[in-house]
Amino acid sequence: MNLWLGIAPVVFIVAAGTLKLLGGRGRSAFRILAALNVVLVGGSLALLAIALAAVPAAASPGGAPALAAAANDVPAGAGGSALIAAAIAVAGASIGAAFAVAYTGSAALAAMSERPEIFGRAMVVVGLAEGIAIYGLIVAIILIGKA
User: Fold this and answer.
1) What is the CATH number of the domain that holds 126?
2) Number of domains forming the structure of the chain
3) Which regions span the lipid bilayer (predicted)?
4) Cβ(43)–Cβ(3) under 8 Å?
5) What is the mean pLDDT of residues 17-39?
6) Predicted local distance difference test score (pLDDT) of residue 1
7) CA 57 to CA 53: how far, in whole Å?
8) 96 lies in which domain range?
9) Per the domain annotation, does 135 fall within a domain?
10) Which of 30, 71, 76, 117 is most open to solvent, judged by the fewest CB atoms within 10 Å of its CB?
């Protein structure tokens, strides 16, 4: 956890530098931002590879024999990949729900400004759009249960 607290100032410094670079709006600013994005994606892919290749501590030779035998039944990165898949499911569903609510909400408000009596039907459509995030959460719970 201390690693993430140490990274927070770096994120703030990079964000401040990005805002300063965008102030110039030159072609060099775009190239620097593109290079920073490539570095960030490379770092996140390396972090993903480390998370998938991690071996549980109980499976180490010094661990309990029963835990080591149970850990041999599951591939080394299976638990980590299930958790990453759960995170992707929640993130994707939440982003999709955000877009859906944004578009249906604005359309519902526009329609209600002309005909206020359709409030109930408009809110049902917005509620259905929010259900997408709940589906992602259910999938994540199922995946975490399998981890």
Assistant:
1) 1.20.20.10
2) 1
3) 6-23, 35-59, 79-110, 122-144
4) no
5) 73
6) 46
7) 13
8) 77-147
9) yes
10) 117
What is the pLDDT of the chain when averaged over all its residues? Answer: 78
56 found inside a domain: no
Cα torsion for 106, 111, 117, 118, to the nearest 10°?
-70
User: Is the CB of residue 110 less than 8 Å from the CB of residue 117?
Assistant: no
Report yes or no: 52 and 81 within 8 Å, Cβ to Cβ: yes
Kindly state whether residue 48 falls inside one of the protein's structural domains.
no
140, 87 Cβ separation under 8 angstroms: yes
Q: Quick one: pLDDT band at residue 78, thresholds 50, 70, 90? A: low
- Which two tokens mark 123? 């809110």
109 domain residue, yes or no: yes
Provide mean pLDDT across the span 2-22.
71
Radius of gyration from C-alpha coordinates of the chain: 23
Would you state the structure tokens that stand for residue 2, as one six-digit string? 């201390």
pLDDT band per the 50, 70, 90 thresholds, residue 21: low
Determine the Cα–Cα distance for residues 126 and 133; give it in Å rounded to an integer. Answer: 12
